[in-house]
Structures are given as structure tokens and as C-alpha cells.
Amino acid sequence: MGSGERTPSSMALAAARPSGVTLRGIAGSPGVAVGPAYVVGDLHSAFQKRHVASSEIDGELARVSKAVEEAEQSLVEMSERMPVALRDTTQILEAYKLMLSDPALHDRVEHKVRKERKCAEWAVTESAEEISALFGAPTERDAYIVERRHDVEFVCDRLLRVLVGDSGPRLHLDRPMIVVARDLSPADTAGMVREPALGFVTCVGSRTSHTSIMARALEIPAVVGVADALSRIDTGDVVIIDGLTGDVTVNPSAEQIHDAQLRSEQHLAFARRLLSARHEPCTTSCGVPVSLAANVELPAEAILAADHGAQGIGLYRTEFLYIDRSTQPSEDEQYEVYRAIIEAVEPQPVTLRTFDIGGDKFASTFELPAEMNPALGLRAVRLALTQPEVFLTQLRAMVRASAHGPVRIMIPMVSRISELRQVRALLDRARQEVADRGQPHAAHIPLGTMIEVPAAALMADVFAREADFFSLGTNDLVQYSLAVDRASQSLADLASAHDPSILRLIHRVCEAARQRGRPVSLCGAMASNPLSACLLVGLGLRELSMEAAAIPEIKEAIRRVSVVEMEQLARDALACDGKEDVEALLSLRLAPRLQDLLAGYDADA
Ligand code: PEP
Ligand code: MG
Question: Which residue from 298, 313, 356, 545 has its CB within 8 A of the most atoms of ligand 1, so it is best to mutate?
Fold first, then answer.
């Protein structure tokens, strides 16, 4: 899927309107599509904000209760319609059902209707806005906050659809079109398997939001986070969406359409070529193997990972099991999820990371203290050690899952050796408890630490004596070493993994691991950049883990360069004064050879 038809009518339409307004969004799923837009109406403008008389209050509240019931029913129907390959998404729908019955929402809505005399639609919209605001100000890079706000908006939309008398405008496209919506539910997105959608544009969302993840799984180009999409695009407008750059061009000129179609064809040919080699081993041009694994958040992504040639799961962020729900996940529930992931990639290994909650990762099932600096507070292993029963439940589920394939357990945000020792003691206890019940499990489960706090990087030689493996989390290592909030948009330029201080820490950790013969991998976002990936191999890494969709292109990048070249590059980068010099060096040495990978398509094809 991808390129639209270049019909005479679409060309005429393009010529009749002012050409080429470009809206900027976030590249959600790669590829370029051209075609007429199908705009799914904005429910927020489909009702009047109205004060109600006291005699209407009970009636309005009854409308809300009925809307909750119908919205729940529509979520059940969505789960049933979900294609089998995306069935894991029903977990998200379950979470939405819980949110629909959340007292925090109900109490607010009731207050607004009873005390402020607002109509049901107005009360629901305002309550959702207030709950969203409780998550704090979102930024483009702050995936958790953006996604949680997005979930609240989705639930509010379901209620509004019922209240405004539109119990779910289904997408029925009679010809290939580009769907433009404020947001798309997982079921709407999954439904695109049957609808001839050329691509999606949404007003909200991030690269890691559900729409983007599913669009990538379905290989449909998508641009998300285009705030003004609904006010700037009308049904029938010809649009170009570029899921490589995040640009959306409305009513393009004939030349822009021609250019986009060319790029679409180039991207498709390029993606096909990369995918056709996805199951080939990843070796440098001189034959040294480098293992590429996948980072996953949703269990459905494990299938995607195996499909993109991942050599296992290098990071499963288990915290996703704890969010958007009112009770902690049980041992059995976790065991089933871990087992499904292990079986999806077996015999390749799976690294299960114990929950990383706190900081910017909020889960209402934990009572987190209000802290001035949550990123420096009760997060990840620190939180886990204060809740040994919750933690032991997770560890037992992991131990049981180890009976189904190779498993490693990894601890996030470790800063002191005593934390590793405490977790090891709890893991031993969990193993004993599982054994006492007569349940099967692996004889040995490696226990490793994430290296994402500078203290741990500096003490890597000490950690290497006791940790079975390391995984460098550069997203946090950058945040903590450079003292730059990873969610800050205004300081995003300072938060570079190419800063020589970060390269020196990575190098030091690789050396400490090498001296003790401990495996070391890297699972921060840095691994999915072709230039950085080559630099990392030069710094000594032979295992990288990244989002599944990036694996084919990183494999291709590594295949084109020799270890000698990468090691020379790393030596020169380590000697640089600043990140600008490192980036200039990468561009000079590698960019000409990796140009097609950096652009997302083969410009010479
Ligand atoms: C990291 O910090 O680099 C990492 C992989 O962990 P997360 O992004 O989940 O904090
Ligand atoms: Mg981290």
C-alpha cells in the first residue's frame, strides 16, 4: 500500500485550489501516499455548550449513564471485530473500558452537571480535559504523558459519539483515500486491513502512540500530531502524506504530486529490498556478526519483531502491563503475557525488564509520592524494592515463563551495587517459591542491569563482577549525565547521545564488560540511527536492541562498513570536544555511503 492513483479528477482538483500548503506533524509510519482525503468529523464541534435547567439535571445524568453503557458495548464489539493478528490490542480496549467506569471521571461529570448546570456533552469534554491536565504538560518527546492524555481523549470521544447521536462513524471508504481524523482508535486502525486506506493523518499522537505502532504493523504511511489537520483539510482535498518526514501537503501542485509518487515508489522498492534481506545474518562488511534484537512494549509487537528479522527481544518494557488499570496485574496474567512473547520469538532469547514505573511513567496502581523531581525520585528498582510483594509477583511470573524459552531478567535504573544484590535475593526467593509449587522453570536465569545512571557506568567494573549482563539505556543515560530532562522539547538539542561524555561512558562500560566476559547490549533510541549504530559497533558493542521496524535498515548499514573503519571512527569520536564535532565526523565518514538509509528511500533507484 502507499501511492495513490494519479487520476485526472484529482489533478484538476489540485489545480483549482491554492497549492501546496504544508502542515507539519510527526512521522508515525514510513512511506509516502498521495490521494483524496476522507475527513472523519470532529465530535467536539458537533454539539452546543448549553446550560441546563434544574429540571433537566437528572435527565442529563441518565444520558451520561446510558452513554457509558453504550460506549462499553461498542468497545466489546470492537474487540470482537479485531483481526486475529492484532488481538493483543484488546488489552488496550479493556483498559479503555476500565477508564469509562472510573469514579474520577464520573464524579467530575456529575459535579459539572449538578453544580455547574452544564449539559452532558460539555461536562464530559471538560472533565476529560481536566483529567488530561493532571498528567502535566505534554511535549513531543514525552511519550508517556502524550499517550496517557491520548487515552483519556479516546475514552471521552467514545462517550461523545454516543451523546451527539453518532454511535461510531464507521469508516467506509468506497475508493482509496487518506483518512484524516482527530484520532483513530486501535480498532479503527485495525479495520484498515479491510478498507482501502492509503494512509492516516491524525491531530494527536506520537511515534509511540497506538495509531503509529499499528500503522507500522499494517505498513500504511501515517503522519500523527498534525494539530490543525481538521481545520486545514476537507474531504476531497488531494493530500500528500510523507511518513518519512512528517509533512502533509494539502492541495499539492502537479509537480509535487509527481515528485511524491516517485518517492513513494522509491520507498516501496527500498523497503522491499531491505525486508527481503531481513532474515540474513547481520555482519559487518568484514564478516563480524552483530546481533540485532527488538524493543517491545505491547505483546503484539513480538510478532512484528520476529517478522522484521529480530534476533530476540532485547527489551520488553513490562511497565505497560501496570498502566491504565485499577488493580495490579496478577502473577498468572503476567505469566501468560511473558509466555506469549517468549513463544513468539523462541528459540531467540527474551530480556524481560522489571517494571520501570515512576519518573514520567505513571501508573495509578502505585501510590507515588508527589516529588519535586520524579525522574530523580522513587522510580523503577527503587520503587520495586519498597513494594516487595508486588515485585515478587512479577519475578515469579518471569521465573515461570522461563520454562518456555531462553529468558533474561533486567533491572532498570540501578545506581548502586546493593540494589542488584537485593534483587538477586528476591529472585532467588521467587525461584524457590515457584519450585516449591512444583512449577517448571529454567535452571539458570541470567540477571543483568540496565546501565542508565552515570554512577553505574562509572562503577561498571564493580557491577561486572556480579551482573550477568549489561544493557545500556542511553535515553536515560543522556538525561542523567547531561542533566537534561528527556521530556524537554526546548532543551532537546542538548540531549544528544553523540556528546563525547556519553560515548566515553559507553566505551568504559563495554571495556568493563569485556574484561569480565559479560555480554553488553544497548537498547536506547540511539541504536536505531544508522550512523550511531556504526559508531556503537566501533565502541565495542556487538548487540543492539531497537524498535522492530528499524532492524532491516540498521542491518543494512552495518553490512556496509568494516569493524576497522568503525573502530577508527569511535577513536576519533572519543577524542572530539563536543557533539557537533562527533556529528560532523559521522557525516563525513559515513553519510555518503548510508545516504539512502538516512533518507528512507533509495534516491538513485
Ligand atoms: C533507556 O533509558 O535508554 C531505555 C531504553 O529505557 P526507557 O526508554 O524505557 O527509559
Ligand atoms: Mg530508561
Answer: 356
